[in-house]
Specification:
73% helix; 216 residues; mainly alpha; 12 helices; Tet_transcr_reg_TetR-rel_C_sf
Amino acid sequence: MAAVKGSDKRPDKRAERSRRTREKIVAAARDLFVAQGYGATSLQEVADRAGVAVQTVYFVFRNKRALFKDVVDTSIAGDAEPVATMDRDWFRSACAEPTAAGQLRAHVRGVREILGRVAPIMPLIAAAAATDPEIAAQWPTDPDPRYTVQYAAAEALTSKPDARADVDVTRAADLLYGLLSPELYLVFVRDRGWSPDAWEEWACAALTADLCADRE
C-alpha cells in the first residue's frame, strides 16, 4: 500500500514542477517581449531568463508563436486556467450586483486588473500581427471578443433599477467598450502618468454619469 501511495503522489509533483516551469517561461517571455519586442526576442533568450534549457521551451510551447499566445492569454486571464472572461468569478459577481452603480464599480475594478496586465502588450500584439499572418489569425476581430464581454456586461447593467432608461444595451456596450479600452488606458496611465487608481476613479465616474439615472 505504501508503494501505491508513493506512486500516487509522484504524478502530482511532476505536474506541479511542469506548472512552475511553464509559469517561469511565460513570465520571462513577457518581460522580454515588452522590453525588446516580439521579433527581436529569441527563444534562447527566453530560456536564459527563465533558467531552463531552450529545449524545454520548445518542448512546452513548440514555437515562439505559441509562447506569445500563451503570454497574451495569461495576461488577459491572470492565470493559466482555461476559463473565459464571462465565466470568471469577478465578472459574474459584478453582473450580479443589484444596482447599475454597484455593477459599474465592480466591473471597472475587474477591467482595471486586466488592463494593468494587458495594456502594455497591446502594441506588441499589433506589431506582431502586422508582420505574421499566423499570429493575426490567433486573435479574430469579428466579432471582437472584448466587445462581446462588454455587451454581456451592458445587458446586465441596463436591466438594473437605477440604469438610465434612455440608454439601450448597444449604447451602454459602446460606452463600456470605448472608455474601458486598452488604448485609452495607455493614454492616461502610460502617456499622461496617471496612477491606475486615478484612471479607475475617472472611468467609474464617467460611466456612472452616462449610464446611471440621477439620484433624487
